[in-house]
Write a structure and sequence with these properties.
Its EC number is 6.3.2.-. By secondary structure, the protein is an alpha+beta fold. It contains 7 helices and 9 strands. The strands form 2 sheets. The protein has a 5-stranded antiparallel beta sheet, with helices on both faces. A hairpin with a 5-residue loop joins strand 8 and strand 9.
């Protein structure tokens, strides 16, 4: 957490000195914090899983029990984190981690688990300045689909519904470029899991012919 704050402060300082930061530090702040991202998606009517955030362990346990009573499974994620680290499914019977346990750090962040129709998978859609430049399907070796966690990549061409959702998500957080993580439920509805302001693209590049790095450089140079 201290490292995140320090790095954001450095970006603020650079911005105050007239250095162009791409993405902007405010956009990074809006997306590095999953709770703020969820809030912005929800308030801008962008479909996203039901989400809960709290600090109290008792409150967290009550949320978990309520979800269990409605036959819902919750996923707990670190508020600040990436690459699937610390992400876990919660069972109603298991003990809630203590507030200062690793990957909790005083705040509980829960999303409802979205079940997919076949093997666990989701989608990463890469957006640059309001345009979709590439997309992939991530198929997990477990229920976590991140490439860093062993997910396999396949190129996809997003349909109209997925495309519009990705663009709406990018607009909701007001960002120059991002990776939008989208999942499709059993009922066929798409929803946004996360918006990544510092998206890795090694996996995406492996299934995309055009150079993502070059697209970002070109977009950056157009702004100078």
């Amino acid at each position: 957490m201290q490292q995140v704050i320090t790095r954001l402060n450095v970006l603020h300082m650079l911005t105050m000195q007239g250095v162009m930061v791409y993405n902007s530090v405010k956009a990074i702040e809006r997306t590095v914090d999953k709770a703020m991202t969820s809030f912005l998606l929800s308030t801008n009517d962008v479909s996203t899983p039901p989400t809960w955030v709290c600090e109290s362990r008792l409150h967290a346990e009550a949320i978990l029990q309520s979800a269990a009573q409605h036959n819902q499974t919750l996923v707990m994620k670190p508020l600040f984190g990436s690459q699937g680290l610390g992400v876990r499914k919660l069972l109603a019977s298991e003990a809630m981690p203590v507030p200062m346990q690793q990957y909790v750090d005083g705040v509980y962040y829960f999303q409802q688990l979205i079940e997919t129709t076949d093997a666990p998978h989701d989608y990463r859609v890469f957006v640059i300045t309001g345009k979709i430049v590439a997309a992939m399907k991530r198929i997990g070796s477990t229920w976590v689909n991140n490439v860093a966690a062993g997910g396999r990549c396949e190129a996809v061409y997003p349909d109209e519904a997925m495309s519009q959702l990705a663009l709406q998500a990018a607009a909701a957080v007001d960002i120059d470029y991002c990776g939008v993580d989208i999942i499709q439920s059993n009922s066929g509805e798409y929803c946004v899991l996360e918006v990544n302001s510092i998206p890795a693209w090694k996996g995406l590049q492996s299934v995309t012919e055009q150079s993502i790095a070059q697209l970002l450089v070109d977009d950056f140079l157009r702004r100078i």
